[in-house]
Amino acid sequence: MEKKKSKEKTLPEIKEITSCETTGQMLKKARQDGIELCFDRAAAMKACPIGADSACCKHCSMGPCRLNAKDPYSKVGVCGATIDTIMARNFGRMIAAGGAAHTDHGMAMLDLFREVVNGNIKDYTIKDPIKLIEVAQSIGIETEEKSNEEVAKALYQELERTYTQVEGEIPFAQRVPPKTLETWRKLGIVPRGAMREIMEMMHRTHMGVDQHYENITKQCSRTALSDGWGGSMVATEISDILFGTPVPVAAEVNMGVLKENQVNIIIHGHEPNLFESMVASVNSPALIQAAKEAGAEGINLVGMCCSGLEMLSRHGIPHAGNFTSTEAIMVTGAVDAMAVDVQCIQQALARVAECYGTYLFTTNPRCHIEGADHVEFHEHNPNECTDEIVIKAISRFKSRKHPVQIPDIRNTGVHGFSYEYINYMLGGSFRGSYTPLNDNIINGRIRGVAGVVGCTNPRVKQDWVHVELVRELIKNDVLVLQTGCSQIALAKAGLCSPEAAYLAGPGLSEVCEAVGMPPVLGMGACVDNSRILIAASEMVKVGGLGETIAELPVAGAAPEYMSEKAICIGQYFVASGVYTIFGVTFPIVENTHFHKLLFEGLEKQGLGKWGFTKDPHEMAQKMIAHIDGKRKALGIDKARERKLVDMAERRDLA
Asked: Is residue 155 part of a domain?
């Protein structure tokens, strides 16, 4: 291991960097070992203030042009572009990149689905035929007297339009509440096909094309919606059909899930097929025997980041940590191999892996890392890749050279709340419905619903904003839906267990106790934000809370976002009608026309709006105030008191 000269004296204290005890322990060890992790790199590298405000443009070679964020209208770019045009272009390109990531993920899942349905891939099958039928019916496919194979082929052909269609509306637009869809049509933001929208977004933001921030923002919405109601939704629905729709399962999270006496393999990324195949490999009798011959008691498969969340939700496979812990986990010395596919993979993983003798494998043709071994994963013969990873991990276990230090902390919670299971949980097999949720919002026991999602960011104290925000929301009777790295932050804090209901307000805790659910419902990976969109549509469909998503007493937040995917997610929630508030930073100059459009103007058009604050308590109060405003507009701002009716009153009623 190459040790760097320690900079510990100039670095921030660990307690200021993370509220995750296990990550803190490993950060301390990394500093002692002379290894730099993302937290210390963030402290050493200050963010560019002009770039953070999106006040610079580098889209042509006449620049880069830097405008003055303190006096934004004092000058323009070389081509004459104003601060509003520059910010809107930058914002649009972030949405295009983020949408492309989720859309490409969804298209990969659809390609896999096609090959399975056509019989070209034998290692995967349709595990949820009920969901297959339900998804097909939701977009108008006739399923009566048709075999599952016929329905599946028809579904593939229809969903392919999500990507390739150049005119018309994407298939899942049929799931959008009619009044919301009417607003989209009026504004001209109904997505056609994801490829068309992303291509047009990139074209419009080229030098000398679209130069009006309002017009650019329309395409921002249409592109983002092609992700939320297109690429992401396809990825989630096809994954459920192929691998099973999640139902609640108790599972452990945190670094304590590693086992010193076993071969530890971590899968990190976003596409579930690699992880599903790895399950088969680690359960191979021959490989288990090989591990025992190497001196191990067995093979321990663990997840991280979003693919880990999918497996946590579907199979209860333990989860070691979120994005900003992916380097720190290797510092334990216990990780024998980490395999990654796409998205949120830090290049620094290769250096940390080398320092601790851990095998790091890239497996996807879209993602190679200098210094990592590449073992390509092919769905037609998946075990060729996954078996090799297990074999290399066993060899590393046999020749471990570094001392093992595993933090002895594990947190148990309940995860896997798909929108279908919530439907069943609230009404049972024969009366499944979101009606009890709406009724409890109307009667005031539940104040509203908040989606708290997204990444962790090393520029803020890890997990702290997520936990503080959610504690404040549930204390005020707001039911919280979770996806992404945020879900693991909450799980480590114990908020994903039914026992956490005691931290909720009296109304929400009563509902949680009656149903037997946590006040925080983990719904899966960041791509599974589409589950929240469908849940919101169901709330509108049930009735009593308005006719559009924009009328619902709901709000969303990404307290520690860090990626372009998050900006795209935020915009598709805003365009769907949800007040969405981000933390850490926001790529915009305040008191500009573009800022006013995103933070006020879109709501006046019948959509949602953006919000921003770094402080979790202020974030909670902004979300609660918005929810209360929607309750007042619906005329349900005063909860109805429950009263036992005596016999005299019954006679009066008669």
From this structure: yes
> For the chain, first and last CA: distance in Å?
84
Same domain for 170 and 274, yes or no, is: no
Is there a single domain that holds both residue 496 and residue 392?
A: no
Q: Are strands 299-304 and 263-268 parallel, antiparallel or unpaired?
A: parallel
Distance from C-alpha of 222 to C-alpha of 250, rounded to nearest angstrom: 38
What are the pLDDT digits (tens) for 536-545?
999 999 999 9
- C-alpha dihedral over 344, 350, 352, 358, to 10 degrees? 110
Per-residue confidence band for 502, with pLDDT thresholds at 50, 70 and 90: very high
Cα 439 to Cα 137, 545, 636, distances in angstroms: 27, 9, 11
Beta carbons of 486 and 520 less than 8 angstroms apart: no
Of 454, 101, 484, the closest CA to residue 306 belongs to: 484
Angle, vertex CA 389, rays to CA 383 and CA 393, nearest 5:
140
* Total structural domains within the chain: 3
46 lies in some domain: no
Residue whose C-alpha is closest to residue 451's, from 569, 545, 564, 598: 569
What would the two tokens of residue 23 be? 């990550």
* Domain CATH code at residue 164: 1.20.1270.30
pLDDT of residue 8: 46
Model confidence pLDDT, tens digit, residues 597-650: 999 999 999 999 999 999 999 999 999 999 999 999 999 987 545 555 456 654
For residues 193 and 94, membership in a common domain is answered with: yes
Q: Which of 608, 606, 604, 638 lies closest to 626, judged by CA? A: 608
Could you tell me how far CA 486 lies from the centroid of its own chain? 8
Could you tell me the CATH number of the domain that includes residue 455? 3.40.50.2030
Considering the domain architecture, whether residues 233 and 300 belong to the same structural domain is answered as no
Q: 345 near 369, Cβ under 8 Å?
A: yes
- Coil, strand or helix at 449: strand
Question: Which of 243, 266, 293 is the last residue before a domain boundary?
Answer: 243
270, part of any domain: yes
Across residues 402-419, what is the average pLDDT? 95
465 and 335, same structural domain? no
Nearest to 600 by CA among 225, 214, 216: 214
Contacts of 357 (CB under 8 A, 6+ apart): 333, 396, 400, 401, 402
> What whole-number distance in Å separates Cα of residue 221 and Cα of residue 197?
10
Same domain flag for 348 and 494: no
Cβ(84)–Cβ(592) below 8 Å: yes
Range of the domain at 219: 76-243
pLDDT 10s digits, 133-158: 999 999 999 999 999 999 999 999 99
